[in-house]
# Entry
Amino acid sequence: MRDRRGISLMELMVSIGIMSIVIAGAFQVFREGILLFRTNQAAAEAQSSAIKALGMLNAELSNSRHELIRLYDSPPGVVFASSITPQGQAQFDQQTGQIYWQRLICYYFEAHPTDPSLGRLIRKERPLDDGDTNGAGRTGNTDVEEVADEMDDQDTADFAAASDTETRTLGHDVCGFEVTEFTGEVDDGAGTRDFLGGASVERKRSYDIRLEAGHPTDKGPASYYIRVDSRVTPRG
Amino acid sequence: MRHQNGHSLLETLVATGVFVMIAVALSGVWVMYGRAMAMSGEFTAANHLARGVNEGLIANGFDWLKSQVESGAVPVEEDYVVLRRVRGNSADIRFNILYDLVLNTDATPGDGDTNDRPLIPQASEDICWISVTVRWHSTTGSEIIEDGKYNNSVRYSTFVYRDAMR
# Structure
C-alpha cells in the first residue's frame, strides 16, 4: 500500500467547521422532531385520559335517575345519586322491589389558580344516610324524595370543600368541564354535538358532557388542545 | 510528520452505507410508534362514541326503539368531530356515526361478515336489534375505502328485549 501524507491543520479546521454545521442542522431537525413527537404524545394521552374519565362518568350517570341528578356552575360539575354499592352491586327491597340508593357522587372541575390549562377533574363520593326503610343487612335508602332532599344540601362547592370524602383525580391538564341537559338540537358552530338524534327525535332526558384539556389558543411548541363530548341517558 | 494509511473509497462507502441503514431503521421505529399511537387514539375515540350511542339508544327503552323503527326515523347518519389542536394546528379526528334499528321479525340468518344482522334464532317483534357503526378515514387504516371516504370502522351490535327495558 502506498504511503499518504496526513491532513494539515487548515484541512482539519475546515472539515471540523463543515461537520459542525451539518451536525448542528441535523440536531435541530432531530430536536424539532422529538419535540413535535412529545407534543403529539401528550395530546394523545390527554385524549385517552379524557375518554376514560367520560366513560366512567357515563357509566355511573346512566345508572342514576333524573330526579337524583343536579347540575352546578360553581365549580362546574354534577352531583348525582348512585344505586351501586362500593362493591359494584345493587340492592333491592325484597317487599317492594325498590332499589336502595347508596351514595352521592360528585364530579367537578377544579381550576388551577394561575394556569387555566392545569385544572383537574375530581371525583368525590360519600355514602347516603340510611333511611328508615332498610331491611336486614341492607344499606342505603329506597325513598327517592328523601334522597333528593339530602342531595339539595350538597352542591359541588360543598364537595370541593369537604376533606373527609373519598377523592380521585381523573384528569390532569384539564381546562374545561361542563355537564348540561340536552334539550334538543345544539348548534355550537362546529356541528359537533348534534349527534344521536337532533330536535326532531323525542327521547328520554339526556345530558351532554364536555371535557377539554390543554390550552385552546396557545400555539407554542409544546401546546395542544383536545375536546371530547359525550351524551348520556340515565336509565332510571 | 510520519506517514499514515488513510481510508480507501470502498471503506468509506461501506461505513457510510452501514450508518445510513442504522439511521433509517431507527427512524422507522419512531415512525411506527407514532402511527401506532395515532391509531390507538382513533380507535379509543371511536369505541367511546359507539358505546355511548349504543348505551343511549338502549336507555330509551324498547317502546321508544320500536317507535323509531315504525316512524321510519332510522337509519340515522351523523358526523362527529373530536377536536384536537397541536401547536395551534388542527389535528381533528372526524367520525361518521351510522345507527340502525331493526325489529327481529325475520329469522333468516345473516352471514355475520357483512352488514346483515346477526340474527338470534327466534323471530319476534319483541326483540329489537341495534347496530351502531362508527367510521372514519385515517392514514393508518387499510386501503379498502368504504363509501368513498372511510377506511376504518368499529361496530357495536345489541339486542333489546321488550320485557327487559320498559
Q: What stands out?
A: Chain B touches chain A through 45 residues (CB under 8 Å). The longest helix of chain B spans residues 9-59. The mean pLDDT of chain B is 80. The first strand of chain B starts at residue 76 and ends at 86.
